[in-house]
Each structure stands twice: as structure tokens, then as C-alpha cells.
Structures
1.
Amino acid sequence: MALALQRISRAELKTINARLEAGTPQDTLNWVDETFGSEAAQMSSFGLEDQALYHMYWTINPNARLMTLDTLRLPTETYSLFDQTKLRYGVEVEFFYPDMSAVTDMVKERGNNLFYRGVENRKLCCGIRKVEPLGRALSGLHAWITGLRRDQGMDRGSIDIVEWDEAHGNHKVNPLANWSFEQVRDFVDANEIPYNELHDQGYPSLGCAPCTRAVEPGEDIRAGRWWWESDPNAKECGIHTVAPAKR
Ligand code: SF4
């Protein structure tokens, strides 16, 4: 039987974050595993950060849970990486898919590539293919682990390592919050961790195939996401945009 969720108080979170900031991502994952056990899972996009993170998490707990959202519009290379990761770690990836009746209605009314025709359409597609399945995935968890880093910009600059996620009613853990992209890349190389081959073709940030392009040297790392939109601060799909409550 699942245990009732124990919300960590603001005072406790402050102490925990102070300790974890001085430690390593592995310290954070150890804490997650000891505190939440199988009521925690990593929600992965299978980007470079997430691949590094799952390697650490699996090293601590070979049964560490790994979830992902399959929007049904991902690049072929990402589907190949799903298979490589399952083979490498022997993990049963928990896939969450969009509600097909919602996809069918959306495509019927607005077309398959609606997202190129306005932010409203793009947010509708992300809502159906990502945000709703994420809510379903997280509904039974006490904590979810992400690969967010502070220097990815936008709202991410102020994330804590452990936060209360008001939108999902659970704890959100960002073990790589204070890591740089170079640290992630070095860790992946040193441990020969499988990664998406698109990273070697100029894609620092990966998402759905029709909404992601390679970036030029010196461009912002998220410039390739929804590149046709003009607002650089709107480069989020809605799954990380709700500010956590800082209690
Ligand atoms: S990234 Fe593009 S294809 Fe994927 S869910 Fe969002 S709008 Fe739809």
C-alpha cells in the first residue's frame, strides 16, 4: 500500500537545501532514495542532463524508476536512445502517452502541424502531448527528479535543489541545479553513457522533431526550440513553468 505523502516543511527544506548545495548530485539522489524510495521517479527527456542523472540514480539504486513522455512526435534518434538506455541499465522505462481522443480532435480541428501557426496552437499541442500526460505520470509520486540546471536560463535561474511543487502536489528535485553544461558533458564522457546523437549535430536541447532545430555556435542553448517564435522567454512547453511555492 502506498504511503501517505509527507510534505517537507519550509524550515526543513531550507536546511536540506543548504546541505545538498554543498554536496554532489549523487548526495541529492541518495537523499531522494532514502527519503522517498519507490515513491520517487526520474522524469526524463533523455537529453544529456537526464542521461547523466539516470546513470547516477541507477548506480545508487538499480531499481530506480525512469519515466518519460512520448509525445508521438519525437525524433527517430530519441526512440533509438530509449532502446539503448533500456539495454544498458536493464530498466523498464515507464512511458506516458497523450490521450488519443484529445490528439484526434486537435488534429481534426487544427491540423497536424498546428504549432507553426501561433503560440496558442503551440501551447494547445504541448498541453495535450506533454502537460496532461505529465500530470498523470506524477499523480502517484511523492517526488520527481528532473535534469534542470540554473544556467539554462529563464525561470530556471532560481530553482532550488529540492522544492515543493504546488502544481503537482509533490516534491520536485533538481540534483543538477548547480552544475554547468561542461560538467554534465564530462560526466557523460567519463562514464561512456549513451546519449542522443543529435547532440553531436548541434542540438543542445532536444524535444519534438518538428519543434527543434540545431543551434549555431554562440547561440542560446534553447534557441533551437520553437525557433519561429519571437519571445525568447517563452521557450517552455508548460511542464516546468509553474513556479514552486517558496514556503
Ligand atoms: S514540442 Fe511541438 S510537437 Fe511537441 S508537443 Fe509541443 S508543440 Fe507539439
2.
Amino acid sequence: MMKFHFVTRKKRGIQILLKYFYHHQRASQLFQPLHILPKDATVKKDELISLSQKLLLDCGIVRPRGNGMYAFLPLGQRVLAKLTNIIDEEMKLIGAQKLLLPTLTSGHLWKKTGRWELTGDELIKVKDRHEKDYVISPTHEEAVVDMLAETYSLTHRNLPLRLYQISSKFRDEANPRFGLLRCKEFLMKDLYTFDKDEASAVSTYEQVSKAYDAVFQRLGVPYVKVAGDCGTIGGSFSHEYHYPAAIGQDILLICNGCGSAVNSELANNSDTTTCPLCGSVTTTTKGIEVGHTFLLGTKYSAPLNCSYQNEKGKPSLVQMGCYGIGVSRVLAAAVEALSCETGIRWPWVIAPYKVCIISPKRGSKEANAASWVNFLANTIGSIEGFHDDIIIDDRDTFTIGKRVMEAKKVGYPIIIVVGKSACELVPRFELIDITNSNVLLFSHVELLDFLRCK
Ligand SMILES: [Zn+2]
């Protein structure tokens, strides 16, 4: 009799699930080239290095690949993926749809809007073999508006329409510095919105602003929202989101009276000590811009002739907004705002791994507790929100102390040590909560209970 071997879909699903649960990253296999300076090395005085740049390099999160260019190594890529996921979730809630536009945009579109000349040397222009002009896009207003104008017969029933992407953007920085904070290529989320009239464009602006607040609140880094400068993007009004940090390039004025905040570039004349709205005294803070929202009106839809068919069947220009979040910049600015010289502190929701489990040293008295390592990883991995968030530091030729120090520097929020106490009659494990430096000693059950409440 013939025998059939087949795996049912359900069984296959369980196999995949188990594989996923029980495959935890090992530090011994991780591509994480650490940047270690020789002991006698001295940093040149004129070499301005920001805290985030130093820590991200030292810990093998990113790697410089030329002036103002960075490779995101596996840990850095995990942080970007988590950021992307948070943004995607919040964009979905306001009905924004994700797409991906080409990196190159035809130069003639940028000429039509006047930005070919206006943007200056930061715009990277290239020619193809047929002498056709392109920009290596720093932003995509022209590209997305032209696509809508020429390929889609919009009617009032299609509006509002909200389209976004998360992609690499380019700028020819004259003076790249501070690592990811000022570089030539960066990861950016850009949303473009299309509405039938000004009132609904303003309502869209308010909805997107709420979604942005939700993103920044979920990240948990204190942020300041200020009235912003429209710059070369143009439009009628805008807001900026900043992480306060000493290295910040923007000076923010926060009113002690009415609480309004403004970018100093927008303050009338040079008076930066009194609030333009209520006259109270202002406090000055330096900030790193991580997000920007603009109400654009018809600034792009007019020159590129992007219109829709209104209720009366007549063509009418769409009203636009554009909204950016500097994804790679959020990563660096969060590190800049939260960390200290000794190590990175990540927002919980974007830490590269939430838990780092450190195995006993090979040949030590506690070495036979090593079998706990996988068991802990698997049981922690079965807790909601932890399955893909555990790294095992199995480099057991190193002392526990050395590996704890490294894990603290990389900033894994929870470090679990399988050490001496794991050999006791009731085995216990050291848990280091790096947000408050607490060291707790837990049994297996207590450990799981603690993590379930996280
Ligand atoms: Zn005020």
C-alpha cells in the first residue's frame, strides 16, 4: 500500500511557531563588531562626536561607511524595524496606506515646482546616459503628486487620500556630523495627504497630529511640539517635534506662561526672552527635530496640476499636507536624550532585544546550571511580547562580569544572569533592571511573573 507523507497546514503552522519560539539569537553568532579604541588613543579636539554617535559605534549598532554614511548592523536594524512597526500601526489607524516610490525623481518635476533651483547644494542631482536630469530624492512631494495627477482620475469620492512610505532619503550635507543626526542618507517616513477642500485638509492635519502624538507617546521619550518654520517645503503652517538634547541644532522657546512653544527661527526680531503670544518669560531649550508636519494647500497640486472631480463634476485642485518622521534620526535622538557615557538607554518598545540572558562561565563552579539558560529563554519566550525579544550571551569563555558590563552598555533593558544562585536547592536568577539599576534575585516562577507585568 502506498503511504502518503504530508504535513497538514495546521501541523506545519505549529512547527513554524515552535521554531520561532525556540530560536533565540546567540551573542556568539551576532554580527556586532565592537569599536574599541586602543588605550593610548586620544580623540582629536576638533573632532565633534555626539554621545549617540559614540555609543552606537562602540556597541556595534551602526558602522560608518564613509563620511555621513552608516550601515545599520543587525541590532540597529532591529530597532528600525520596531520603529517602523509602531509607525505602521498608527498610520493604519488613520487610514493611511503604505507604498514605495522610486529613489530617483525626474528633474523636470522639481523644475516645475521651482525646487530644482531653490533647494541649493544639498539637493543631489544626477544625469542618466541620455542626459536626463534626476534628483536622488530628499523628499517626494513632486513624485507623489505627479503620480496622482497623471495616472489616476480622482473624484471627490476618493478623498481624503493618505499615502506614506518609509524609505532612504538623501541630502548632500556640507558638514556631516553627530553620526545619524546629520548625515547624507537617512531613513524617513513621509506621508502625503490629499483633501477636497481646506476644511477637510485641516481636519486631516489634526488627525495626523494626533497619530504623531501617539507615536511619540508610545516611544516614551519626552518631546516638545513647537510651531515650526515652513522652510523650503513651504505651505501655510507647520509643527515640529523635538527631543530636547544639549547637542540639538534647534533652539526652542517654551513660554512659562501659556505653555506655547516655538522654534526660535520663527520668533519675531531677536527677542527670544518674551512670549510672542502672552508676553511671559520664555525658557530656552535645545532640541533635535524628529518629526515635522506641514499644511501645504495647493503649493504642489497647482504647478503639477493635480485635481479631482468635485461634486458638480468640475475639476478642482487637491489640498495637501505632508508629514515626516526621521526614523533613523529618532533612533539616534532617543539614544542622545536618554543615555549616559556608560551606556545606551533605549525606550522599552524599541530596545534591540528586551532580555539578555547570560550563561555561566565555562569551567566555573556554576557551569552545570547552564541547562537553565535555554529553559529560561523558552519560558520567557512564551510570554506575550517576548517571543522574538531574547538574546542569549553564550560566550562562556568570558566572565559573567564582563558580559554584564557589555549588556549594560548595549542597553538591554532586562539582563538575567544564570550564576551561583542558580545552583542552590531552589535555583534563583539575578535580574538586572537597567532602567532603575535594581538587582533582584528571583526563582523561575517569580521571574516569569515579573516579566508578565512588564
Ligand atoms: Zn505665552
3.
Amino acid sequence: MKRMWKALSRLILAASLLMGCTARVEERIGASPPVEDIPLPTPALQGTMSLEETLALRHSVRSFTGDPLTLVEIGQLLWAAQGITRDWGGRTAPSAGALYPLEVYVATAEGLYHYMPQGHKVRVESTADLREALWTAGLKQDAIRQAPAVFVITAVYARTESKYGARAERYVELEAGHAAQNLLLQAVALGLGGVPIGAFHDDQVQSALSLPSDHAPLYLIPVGHPQE
Ligand SMILES: Cc1cc2nc3c(=O)[nH]c(=O)nc-3n(C[C@H](O)[C@H](O)[C@H](O)COP(=O)(O)O)c2cc1C
């Protein structure tokens, strides 16, 4: 009888532990915010403007109408910056050692989106309009507050440092230039305009967007319909 009672109490203990564990796992799952990905429209591989015309027309645009960008336009611009164009993962912009240190975000009135080249989609990072905070971080340059979309090119230096050590700093920043120029030229080809902005407080951009600590902001690129 005593032995049976002991076995029963062990069973009860095991069951309550198991239930506790399950509750803790549920708590953990419930605590993390849901990840929402938005698929982007398939990027166009043909346009109406030649590369030569696009180059000739490019200039920095800092004044925009109030018209928002469409999802097609945002998708095309993100693809131009970092889209995958090769079966093995090669992208629209070259990358030292194909290590791809760049992470691209876009801030609009609807929120902050993080581009995922794999799957050509964006991850919703915030549903708040963070452009005003970006404007403050960007020395109150009006293009940032006026543009319907502010693209933010950030870099994870460690990816390139893993192979190139101290040389990585140069490589990563050259790559940001490649991606930025692709995006700016794509904007022109879509009848849009933009400006590459390097003058901003890095730490303020990082905190305005709640970026991961290793995503270093290198460029802000406001894009919109030119007001000229
Ligand atoms: C690295 C870099 C940083 C820049 N930073 C800013 C900036 O903070 N604000 C701005 O209005 N333009 C910025 N520009 C844009 C330049 O002012 C612009 O390219 C230059 O005046 C030439 O004009 P264009 O782009 O119309 O040919 C930057 C350009 C580069 C390449």
C-alpha cells in the first residue's frame, strides 16, 4: 500500500512538472511578437528607359509630392538594391567574397520593413511611422520627412571581417555605394527621384528604428515622386 502511494505521488509530481513546463513553453511562445512577412511582387526585368537615359537623368531629388509609393515600386527598388539574380544567391550588387553584409530597410507612413532577399519579401519590423524620428537623426534634412519612403542601407561588418579582417571596412562601404546607386538609378527608371544621405547621427538612426546592434546604418535614401 505504502509502495503504491509512493508510485502515485511520483506520477502526480511528474504530471505537474510536465504541465508546468508546457505552460512555460506557451508563455515563451506567447511573449515573442508575431513575425509578419509580406511577399513583394515579382520584380520587372525590363523597363521603358535605357540605362544611358537613366544615367543622364539621375540627379539628387530632395523635394517630393505627397504621393505614396506602391508596393510594386517599393519591391522593385529593394530588388535593385539587393535582389537575388543568380541561382547560387548572387545579387544585383556585387559583394566582396559574396558575403553580403548589407541589410536594407524601408520606412514609410505605414511602418518599418526589413528586406529579405531570400524569398523577395519584407519583414514588418514596426507599424509606426518612424520617418519623423529619422528626420531628427538625419540633421532635420527635409527630404527625409517629406519622402513617402526612406530606404536605409545598413551593414553587418562581421560578415565581411570573417574573411577579410581590417580590409572589410573598406569593402562593406564600397558595397553600400553599389547598392545605393542601383536603387537611385532604379528610382529614375520608375519616374521617381531620391537622394543619398550620409549626414546623420548613427546612434540616433539605430535607436529610432530599433535596429539590431550589429546593423550599422550607412545611408538614408529618401525616395518619392519629384516635386519640380
Ligand atoms: C557619400 C555621400 C553623402 C551624401 N550626403 C548627403 C546628405 O547628407 N544630404 C544631401 O542632401 N545630399 C547628400 N549627398 C548628395 C550630394 O550632395 C549630391 O550627390 C551632390 O550635390 C551632387 O549632386 P547630384 O547628386 O544631383 O549629381 C551625398 C552624396 C554622397 C555620395
4.
Amino acid sequence: MKALTIEKVGSPVRLTEVDMPVKREGHSIVKLKASALNHRDVWITKGMYPGIKEGAILGSDGVGVLDGRNVILNPGLRWGENEAVQADDFEVLGMPVDGTFAEYISIPNEYIYDQPEHLSIEQAAALPLAGLTAYRVLMSRCQTKSTDKVLVTGTGGGVALFAVQFAVALGCDVYVTSRSEEKIAKAVALGAKGGYNYKDETWYKEVETNFDVIIDSAGGASFQHLIKICKPGARIGFYGATLGKYQNLNPQLLFWRQISILGSTMGSDQDFRNMLAFVDNHKIKPIVDSVFSLEEGSRAFERMEAGTQFGKIVLKH
Ligand SMILES: NC(=O)c1ccc[n+]([C@@H]2O[C@H](COP(=O)([O-])OP(=O)(O)OC[C@H]3O[C@@H](n4cnc5c(N)ncnc54)[C@H](OP(=O)(O)O)[C@@H]3O)[C@@H](O)[C@H]2O)c1
């Protein structure tokens, strides 16, 4: 079968002919119809991820067909019993275990769910990893309520956009940041109340200091400013560090104003089930930025690296 593999760290992904997966006990072989990129896939090709196995098939998001059923895969493997944190042997589909950028995958049955019926194949492919991460950080970690005022930074990101859609569906007043006015306008069209362009490094100075919840994946030097625009008692949920380490965090601002900074990663099986139910109940449709074929895989990676996307970059198999 055909698959996108990482031949060598630092080289683009390559479409190669690989052996069909072998069915193991407790697994099923799903015929994959579509998958989607996450920033993780790009980090892996650059060697910026632990445990990289050259020759592995990339891809964490996948939808396909099993015995005539349209199915969607949970990419978080072996979360374990503790809802608070994943087990030591937790793993993400698509490195080191073979992922979804292939025609078929062998996957344990417990990670196979019915695809929400209101979604197209492409929309469903966009959902798993980013939807799960957004759901956990927003709902399970920050315990966001409909009365909360929410800021999501970097709205163009795959996870960030789900956080916007989920918070809007919940009934929150949602604001965003982005490098692009066009992306802010698109977020507003999805129900956000407004946005700020972070290319202006003083953007936070024009913001009212009243966010109950902030969802961030940028980190870096600008994270310190998020604390200044929180309400006392606010929660800042974060799941990424695109800009690296925090700098100049002021502990006085944090403890006196009772602000929580909550780290979050992917989500438990329960989070995945809850996320699918939430998407189904609110008939949320993931935003698909673009669709490439498996053969065009390296172009899809280039698009993600360029950062001009709004929504998920999907591969149709
Ligand atoms: N912990 C987890 O479970 C988990 C899960 C998924 C992702 N992640 C991490 O989260 C990050 C985003 O992942 P993704 O897949 O959503 O990536 P993505 O789709 O490529 O999105 C990255 C986004 O970051 C935003 N960004 C860039 N510079 C920024 C800045 N200075 N301030 C605020 N936002 C900025 C951009 O938003 P604009 O385009 O709007 O400017 C961009 O769209 C990555 O670091 C990834 O590794 C972690």
C-alpha cells in the first residue's frame, strides 16, 4: 500500500510503497479515506520530537471504513485510568507507531468510534487530535462555562480554531488573536466577537482586563502579557510552546489575583467521547483549509510550515 513516511529527519515526507499492516489480536484494519496534518507532523520531520523512528508512517488523524461503517480514530493511545494525567506509556498515533497517512491502518478496537454523521469525510478527518486537545484544555482543564469571556490566541491554528468553535457553541463571548486580519475576520464570521493582531507587539494594551479563560499555544516572551489581561480568578490553559520558554512571568500578578496556569495535553478516552458528543450535539463543522491527495503530501507539509492556513489541512486518500 502507499504511505507517507519519514525516510530521514530533515528531509520532506515521501510517498512510498510499504507492506500492508498485519491484523493483530484485538485490532482491526481500517481502510483510511482521509487524514489531516497537525503541527506535530512538521516538528517530527524536523527532528524536533522525542522517539523519532525513521521509516515510520506519519499521521495522527484518520477516518475510514470498517465493515461498511464510517469510523473515526482516537489518536491518544493508552491514556490509562487516571483522568488527571496520561500514563507513562501514553503514545500518539503516528510516531513511533505507524500512523494514518496511509491506505490502511491496524489499530486496537477501543480507538475506533462511529464518525459523527453530519460531517463530510474531510471535516471528520480534521477533528480527532486538534478537537480532542481543544476540548480537554477548554472544558476539562479550564472548566469553561457559558458565562465566561474567552480569548483564544493564534486563531489560525488547528487546535485554536476548535477552541473558538467549542467556546462559541457553549455560548461564551469569544475573542481571538492572530497575525492576520483576514483570519480574525474569519473567526468573527464563526461567532467570535472580535480580535487583535499580535504582530502589533503592544496589542494587549488596548484590551480590557477581563478574560475569564485564555487558551494559548504560543508561550514565549509574550505569554507574560496574557496575565495582565486576565480577570482575577482566571484560568489560562496552554497546550503548546511554539515560541519557546516563558519569560519575565510576574509571580505577584499570579498569586495575588488567584490566576491558574493549566497545562494540557491531548485528552483521555472520556475526553474523546465527550468531544464527539459535543460536536454531534452542537452540529459543529470543523473548518477545512485545504485538501491534498496523499501524492501531494509534501505540499501539504509546506502549507502548514508557511502558516497561512485557516483550519485544518486534510489529505484525501
Ligand atoms: N499538547 C498537545 O496535546 C498538543 C496538541 C496539538 C498541538 N500542540 C502544539 O500546539 C501548537 C499548535 O499546534 P497546531 O497543530 O494547532 O498548529 P498550527 O495549526 O500550525 O497552528 C499554529 C498557530 O500558532 C499561532 N501562532 C504563531 N505564532 C504566534 C504568536 N506569536 N502568538 C500567538 N499565536 C501564534 C498561529 O496563529 P495565526 O495563524 O492565527 O497567527 C498558527 O496558526 C504546536 O506547538 C503543537 O505542537 C500540542
